[in-house]
Amino acid sequence: ESDTASEISFQFNRHKKTPSIGSHSSDMASVSSVSGSVLSVYSGDFGSVDAQGTVEFALDYDEKNREFQVHVSQCKDLAVVDEKKGRSDPYVKTYLLPDKARMGKRKTSVKKRTVNPIYNEVLRYKIEKMVLLIQKLNLSVWHNDPLGRNSFLGEIEVDLASWDWSNRKLNWYPLKPRSLSAVNGVDHRGVMNLSIKYVPPGSLGKMCPKNPPSGEVHIWVKDVKDLLQLRPSGVDSFVKCYVLPDTSKKSYQKTRVIKRDTNPVFNHTIVYDGFHTEDLKDACVELTVWDHEKLTNHFLGGIRLGLGTGLSYGISVDWMDSTQEEVAFWQEMMSAANEWIEGLLPLRSL
Question: Matching InterPro entries, A to Z (predicted)?
Answer without folding.
Answer: C2_dom (IPR000008), C2_domain_sf (IPR035892), SYTL1-5_C2B (IPR043567)
